[in-house]
Structure formats: structure tokens, C-alpha cells
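New here. Your pick:
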Amino acid sequence: MSSAGRAKSLVVYLVCEPETPELAEAAVEGGADVLELGIPFSDPLAEGPTIRLASERALARGMRTRECLECVAAVRSRVDVPLVPMTYAAILEAYGYERFAADSRAAGATSAIVVDLPVEEHGEVPRIQLVAPTSTDARIAACAARTDGWLYLVSLTGTTGARDRVSPALAGLVERARALTDVPLYAGFGISAPEHAAAVAELADGVVVGSRAVLAAEEGPAALRAYVASLRAAIDAAVPA
């Protein structure tokens, strides 16, 4: 099924490493509609242990911003889904905000996520904005007005990582955001099992899966493809197109 025929979008996160282009292709074959490609940072405040360790490994292997943009370009040569580099403001501060925006687009990126860059700053970098259960309505409205494509709902307070259940705060956040904006709402953080993805798909327009996808990727393309396919099947069963 093409992404255009799907009721809900599935976003899969991978850290930029030498193997990522092959893994990205496997994720798309499994049913990913969007790929979020993490540019590793030495102090990733929003990340739990799985992505933190993956980022440390990538940095130890020489994956700096330039190498990560080359990785984005290599992924783009294999897949035609939206690609969203995800990083932190310190990386862009060092690389140059306008330079990053231009170079990431040239590499084939569709947008960007800069976790800790306030919505009011550096409008020259088109990016997907994030809001959380702690965000005020005014903040949600401001982020929705300036987001690039969709609004990222952080489903819980805390760091990324697999959880036993979907955050009970998500339903309220979706309800508040829907009252304030018509942009698509994609939810992430703490989503790992197929049943989690199905539950989130019943609330939001898209499901973002990070830490558990990174763990599956460590087992190789076949394992990642199978894991993503299990998420896709659960989402499509819960919310048919």
C-alpha cells in the first residue's frame, strides 16, 4: 500500500551511521512513511539510554554533521519518502544555521527537527515544531503556526525510550492541539510495541517510533523490516484507510 492510501503515517527514527542507508531502505519496505534521521550529539538531553548509546557509537565512528548529511543523501538515493534530520541547536550553531538548512535540503532532506531550538529563533531553518503535555495553549498555537508540515506531539514528559503503555497524557494533548490547529499531529516518545502504535494511531495522524526501531536496526535490515511491518499492520488494522 502506498503512503498516499494510508489512514495514518508511520515515522521511523534511525541514527545516522554507515549502515543507515540500507536500514532506511528496509524500514520503508516494512511500511515506514517518513524517516527521521538522527544527527548524533554528545549531550542529547531528550534521549533515553538506547538512542544515547547509539549516538555515542555513531560519534565514535566519526559521524559528524557533514558525514550525517552525506548519509542523508545516501538514504535519499534509495528511498522516496520524506527525510527529516533530527538534532540539537548546538550542532547547528557550530555548523551554521543557514548552511545547515541549505546543505540538508541539497542532500534530500524534507524538513528538520531541532529539539531544543525555540520556535521564535532561527526562522531560516524550516523545521517541525515539538509540543508537550506541559505546553500552554498559546505555545501550542505558536508552534503549530510555524511548524513545517506536521506538529510533533511529545506524548510524555521525560526522555525517549520504550515504555509499557501509551502515555495517558497523550489524549488530552491531542484534544487541545486539535482545537487550536488543523495541521497534522504526529505523536512520539515511549511508543514501542505494535499495540502502542495502534492506540496512538486512533488518536493522532501519525505515529513516531524511535528507541525500539534503533534496537531492531542493531539486529540488521531484516529484523528492522519485520519490526516496522508489525507496526504498520497494527496501525492499519486499528485505523483502516
Observations:
- The radius of gyration is 16 Å.
